[in-house]
Amino acid sequence: MSLQFSVLASGSTGNAIYVEANGQAFLVDAGLSGKQMTNLFEQIDRDIKNLSGILVTHEHSDHIKGLGVLARKHKLPIYANEKTWQAMNGLIGEISTDQKFVFQTGSVKTFGSLDIESFGVSHDAAEPMFFAFHHEGKKLALITDTGYVSDKMKGTIRNADAFVFESNHDVSMLQMGHYPWSIKRRILSDVGHVSNEDAAIAMMDVIGDSTKRIYLAHLSKDNNMKDLARMSVEQTLAGKGFITGEQFDLYDTDPTTPTTLVAI
C-alpha cells in the first residue's frame, strides 16, 4: 500500500494530520476536541480506533486539545519526547503507563514498512519536533510551528514527495494588525512562526525532482488569507524559477475541513 495522508485541520484553532501506509496509521497531533476529531475522521472515511498511535509535536493547546480524550477512549499509544511529556503533565489528564512512549528528537522509529523520522524545530515550546515519513521510497515531510527553517531541518526534509509547510502570516498584516506588540514580536521571532515569504525562501532549498505537492499550513486567522499566502509563495518561488502548477502543485489547508486523502 502507498503512503497516504490528509491534513485534517490546520491553523491557530487546532491542528491534526493523518498519515497511513501498509496497515500502519498515525495521527500527528490532536488539537481539536474529541467530537471534532471524530467528525474529521468520518470525512476522510477512516476510524480513530484503527490508529497505530498519536505522534505529538509539542504541548501547545492547538496541538493537544483532544489528545487525552482520544487516547483514553480508544486505548491509543502516544509518542512524544521526554520534555514534551513533562510539559503535558496536567494538560491532558491521566494516561496509562502502557500508552506512554518516548520518541526522542532526532531519532527514527519503524512501524512495519513505515519509518518515521523526528527532527527538532525552533518554537517556544519545551522541545518541539516534527516528522518525516518514509515508505517504499516515498517521503512526506511535515514542518510547521517554527520561527525559521535551519540548514539541519532542510537536510532532513529535502526532496520530499509532499510537504506540509508552515505559511503562517503576512508580515505587513501582522505588523498593522490588532495584536499587542509582545505577541507580534513573539510571532516574528526565531521561536515564533514562519511568514509566507520566508516559507517560500526555505522551500527553494528543499524542493527537489520528487516534489509534487506542497500544502500551505498553520495560516493565522487574523494575519493571513489563503489567497494571499498562495500568491506570496508562488511569486517568491517564481522569482527563482520555480513554477507552481508545472513542477509541483500548491494546496490550501483549512482549520475545519480536511484535505482530500491522497497517495504519494
From TrEMBL:
Superkingdom field: Bacteria
InterPro entries in the record: Metallo-B-lactamas, RibonucZ/Hydroxyglut_hydro, WalJ/YycJ, WalJ/YycJ-like
Ranges for domain Metallo-beta-lactamase: 13-218
TM region(s), chain numbering: none
A UniProt-annotated Pfam family: Lactamase_B_2
Protein name listed in UniProt: MBL fold metallo-hydrolase
Gene3D superfamilies reported for this sequence: Ribonuclease Z/Hydroxyacylglutathione hydrolase-like
